[in-house]
What we know:
The complex is a heterodimer of chains A (114) and B (113).
Chain A: E1 5-7, E2 10-13, E3 19-24, E4 31-37, E5 43-50, E6 53-57, E7 65-68, E8 75-79, E9 88-95, E10 104-105, E11 109-113
Parallel strand pairs in A: 2-11
Antiparallel strand pairs in A: 1-3, 3-8, 4-5, 4-9, 5-6, 7-8, 9-10, 9-11
Chain B: E1 3-6, E2 11-14, E3 19-21, E4 23-26, E5 33-38, E6 45-50, E7 56-59, E8 62-65, E9 75-77, E10 86-94, E11 100-103, E12 107-112
Parallel strand pairs in B: 2-12
Antiparallel strand pairs in B: 1-4, 3-9, 5-6, 5-10, 7-8, 8-9, 10-11, 10-12
Amino acid sequence: EPEVTQTPSHQVTQMGQEVILRCVPISNHLYFYWYRQILGQKVEFLVSFYNNEISEKSEIFDDQFSVERPDGSNFTLKIRSTKLEDSAMYFCASSAEAGGDTQYFGPGTRLTVL
Amino acid sequence: GNSVTQMEGPVTLSEEAFLTINCTYTATGYPSLFWYVQYPGEGLQLLLKATKADDKGSNKGFEATYRKETTSFHLEKGSVQVSDSAVYFCALSDLLRNYQLIWGAGTKLIIKP
């Protein structure tokens, strides 16, 4: 069964450093998402991406964040200058269609900012 | 704005007990509703979904019915197993924000043998 994959599973970085989280969505999916879950808190939407453009972003997704689909398979989330409060589990998801279609999630990347 | 409220956990049950995890929502229009499950150390897996009022989603013995009149989507299972121990998340797709998922806080379920 096709699945979303994410690398790395755990990333430790120093405050102020740049990190890139990588995702490989399901191959025939067209819509891509990033969510995050700070320990003990709700899952929060960060950004959605379609047709090589951001289609929606939350207040969390400020200028420190960017997303990219550099080739036909990868979907990346970059945090330019990490802060302590960026420590969280980051989930990538993809769906075949919009309109409330099921989003399939990867296993997540745990980001720890020291 | 749209929101999802879930019953707080942890919920602790004995094996073969009946399970209900309550979920209510506030939304504009008729969003799709989802239950996701997160097993220890794993990611978010879709458990079931419903896309319109009175739809019943079901999977692995779990069921939830989309109740528009009570704005609810409660998760039920007739006889739980130890392997059902996990965190369960209720979510809706936000029609006004490109169908991003709005999540409940999650309910941790512990099943004792």
